[in-house]
């Protein structure tokens, strides 16, 4: 037999023949002819590249997956063990937050109406009252995300002047958010003080000139300087700004309201602490350690917040009704720390104990097919979202060692399952962490693995 005749590529059907197949009729009807044809071309190219032959059932399954992947944002199963996974949407919302969001999404709501007087109301009235109660701040604002909160703060109080920042805090948070660039975008000139590892209060004092407007403190987020380090007490920094007529701004990042010692993660600076230390403006995210929707919180003193509220950027950065409803509901849960730990999924996941994780890993193991050659191994989960990079949350992982494919291949197949399963790849091993799988998702994860190996 000549080589060309046995070449599987020869057996791949032409596009027009595929489109005419009965399997294709509904697909074309639902998805439209062009997207289907486009996905077919890609799938054919993938088969050609892999030198694989045509199998109609497999082909149409792969096509469905391809078209599904092009659908945009979809639910996935997170088996990575990274609780606040930015690429997977960060914090899953609490039941009451989902209910509040759904309720206002369905119809109209009192977004900017005071129902007592029937007059125009304050969009942030509800969130502000809760933040005041929970943090002791004078007042607050909400914007679309933490980055927006920092940009608005600097634009409102530092523009045209200088912002003083320690060289140890000139960080990049990720996604292109770099402190020097944000300061410039806010219309301010950056004045760097101290060194990468050590900055003292006199470094700030000596840098205050006639154009100084702001002392900015930045949480190093996903980055740590360890060893021979020094930084002034945050409260002393805020006091210095006050004495010299400057505005103190803290970019806190993660925005914890709960004492994280409760979930075995002591030492993280929270919102209440930043407010108590006297910062005029404190910026934080809504979807990191608060466990709420994507939002940016800006807390602080009346005069500083009023300047932010008046700034033209405020209109461009304001959040919608669904975000505010979910944020308010999440904040309400934080009134009772026990309740927050139970009901806010990100906090509940971080707090899950070793025994419970081991038990859930065992359940997953018993549901997996023989071919997965799975075993339980000790490991760590991560907080994620740029928060607490050094924190280790001990967990039990399920490691898969399939015989007939590599870990990468299996991971790719799992990402194409319905719903997609995202696992952790580590040194050629595929790992599933039960911490970020909800109770009902363990079975879904096992099913996805069984199908991917079949
Ligand atoms: C995460 C983070 C931000 C950005 O917040 P987003 O809500 O992601 O926009 C800004 N500053 C710090 C210190 C952060 O950790």
Description of the molecule:
There is one protein chain. Helix 4 crosses helix 5 (56-69) and helix 16 packs across helix 17. This protein folds into 3 domains: 8-71; 77-90 and 347-453, Aspartate Aminotransferase, domain 1 (Alpha-Beta Complex); 95-343, Aspartate Aminotransferase, domain 2. Residues 1-5 have low confidence and may be disordered. The chain has a 7-stranded mixed beta sheet with strand order 5-13-12-11-10-6-9, with helices on both faces. A 5-stranded mixed beta sheet has the order 2-14-15-18-17. A two-stranded parallel sheet has the order 1-16. The protein is 43% helix and 18% strand. It has 454 residues and is α/β, with parallel strands linked by helices. Strand 17 and strand 18 (429-432) form a beta hairpin. The two termini are 32 Å apart. The structure holds pyridoxal-5'-phosphate. Pyridoxal-5'-phosphate is lined by residues 145-147, 150, 173, 177, 218-219, 221, 251, 253-254, 285, 296, 386.
């Amino acid at each position: 037999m000549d080589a060309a005749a046995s070449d599987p590529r020869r057996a791949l059907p032409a596009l027009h023949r595929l489109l005419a197949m009965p399997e294709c009729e509904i697909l074309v009807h639902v998805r439209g002819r062009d997207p289907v044809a486009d996905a077919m071309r890609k799938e054919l190219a993938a088969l050609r590249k892999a030198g694989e032959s045509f199998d109609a059932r497999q082909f149409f399954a792969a096509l469905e997956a391809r078209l599904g992947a092009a659908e945009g944002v979809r639910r996935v199963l997170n088996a990575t063990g990274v609780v606040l996974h930015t690429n997977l949407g960060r914090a899953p919302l609490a039941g009451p937050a989902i209910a509040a969001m759904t309720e206002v999404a369905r119809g109209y709501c009192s977004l900017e109406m005071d129902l007592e007087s029937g007059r125009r109301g304050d969009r942030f009235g509800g969130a502000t009252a809760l933040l005041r109660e929970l943090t002791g701040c004078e007042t607050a604002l909400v914007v679309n995300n933490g980055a927006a909160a920092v940009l608005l703060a600097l634009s409102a109080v530092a523009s045209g002047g200088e912002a003083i920042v320690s060289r140890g805090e000139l960080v990049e948070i990720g996604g292109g958010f770099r402190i020097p660039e944000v300061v410039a975008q806010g219309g301010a000139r950056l004045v760097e003080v101290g060194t990468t590892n050590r900055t003292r209060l006199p470094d700030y004092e000596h840098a205050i000139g006639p154009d100084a407007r702001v002392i900015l403190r930045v949480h190093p987020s996903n980055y740590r300087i360890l060893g021979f380090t020094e930084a002034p007490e945050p409260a002393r920094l805020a006091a210095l700004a006050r004495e010299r007529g400057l505005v103190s701004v803290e970019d806190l990042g993660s925005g914890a309201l709960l004492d994280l010692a409760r979930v075995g993660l002591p030492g993280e600076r929270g919102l209440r602490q930043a407010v108590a230390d006297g910062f005029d403006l404190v910026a934080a995210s809504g979807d990191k350690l608060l466990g709420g929707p994507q939002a940016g919180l800006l807390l602080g003193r009346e005069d500083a917040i009023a300047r932010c509220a008046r700034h033209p950027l405020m209109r461009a950065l304001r959040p919608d009704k669904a975000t505010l409803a979910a944020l308010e509901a999440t904040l309400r849960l934080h009134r009772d720390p026990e309740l927050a730990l139970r009901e806010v999924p990100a906090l509940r996941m971080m707090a899950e104990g070793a025994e419970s994780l081991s038990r859930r890993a065992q359940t997953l193991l018993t549901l997996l097919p023989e071919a997965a050659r799975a075993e339980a191994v000790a490991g760590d989960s991560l907080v994620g979202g740029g928060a607490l990079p050094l924190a280790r949350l001990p967990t039990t992982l399920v490691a898969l060692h399939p015989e007939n494919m590599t870990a990468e291949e299996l991971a790719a197949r799992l990402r194409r399952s319905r719903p997609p399963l995202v696992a952790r790849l580590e040194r050629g091993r595929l790992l599933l962490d039960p911490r970020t799988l909800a109770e009902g998702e363990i079975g879904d994860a096992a099913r996805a693995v069984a199908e991917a190996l079949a």
